[in-house]
Design brief:
This protein is mainly α. Helix content is 76%, strand content 0%. The chain contains eight helices and no strands. Helix 2 crosses helix 3.
């Protein structure tokens, strides 16, 4: 795929994103010794306060997108290069329903196959974090944190930045496979690895067809919203 950045830039993005968050954490720890407001904020984070966790989540997203912006500026290209391009409404709707249907079918088939091959594999292991546990007590914040922000951030990073760089190096198929596996690993659970890797492959396919991450963001949001509703009903 015709993007100016390379695989080494992907490694740089990941290293910078994690590194800056570590630096921020150290700075907050140091400042907390003399600044009561920061000390209170840290205490709120450690106690599981949803607002404090949401603030950190926003900062993490801002850092990641900020690094992408620096790479785009370095290579003198705009956000269109990471897939922020408009797509026709009818075409978007067609892909939205087509990809979701394919995802439901493939995910169930693959998970059933994995369960057959590995009987101990728990396909129903729930994803737990500060926001999944707050879907009923802080519904609006949880909705933004689980349904709105992740698709925007993850599609920009994984499909818009990482996938094209890997595809440029290894070809479209391997680029899609590798970026989708990284996407799955980033979710931190074995059942979610299978689930999100399949979704990632389909979103890579859609990106190559539309040249835009916007339909992928909508598919991603719809998938997360369905999970959000399922969590809320428990």
């Amino acid at each position: 795929m015709n993007v100016p950045w390379r695989v080494r830039d992907v490694a740089g993005l990941v290293a910078a994103w994690f590194g800056l968050q570590i630096v921020l954490g150290v700075m907050l720890a140091v400042l907390a010794r003399g600044v009561p407001a920061i000390r209170d904020f840290q205490a709120a984070v450690h106690s599981g306060d949803i607002t404090a966790s949401f603030t950190l989540n926003l900062v993490s997203v801002a850092i990641g997108l900020g690094i992408v912006a620096l790479y785009l500026r370095h290579y003198k290209v705009g956000w269109k290069m990471v897939g922020w391009r408009r797509v026709g409404v009818l075409r978007t709707i067609k892909y939205l329903f087509g990809i979701m249907l394919a995802f439901i079918i493939l995910a169930n088939l693959v998970l059933a196959l994995v369960k057959l091959l590995v009987p101990s594999f728990n396909i129903d292991q729930p994803q737990t974090n500060d926001f999944t546990s707050a879907v009923n007590t802080h519904r609006s914040l949880a909705l933004v944190a689980l349904v709105i922000l992740p698709p925007i951030f993850e599609e920009t990073i994984f499909r818009g930045f990482i996938f094209p760089a890997l595809a440029k190096k290894t070809g479209l198929i391997w680029g899609a496979v590798l970026s989708s596996m990284i996407f799955g690993i980033a979710h931190g659970q074995t059942n979610l690895f299978v689930y999100t890797s399949i979704l990632g492959l389909l979103l890579c396919f859609m990106y190559t067809k539309t040249r835009s991450i916007i339909p992928g963001i909508l598919v991603h949001m719809l998938n997360n919203y369905l999970a959000f509703v399922a969590i809320s009903s428990k």
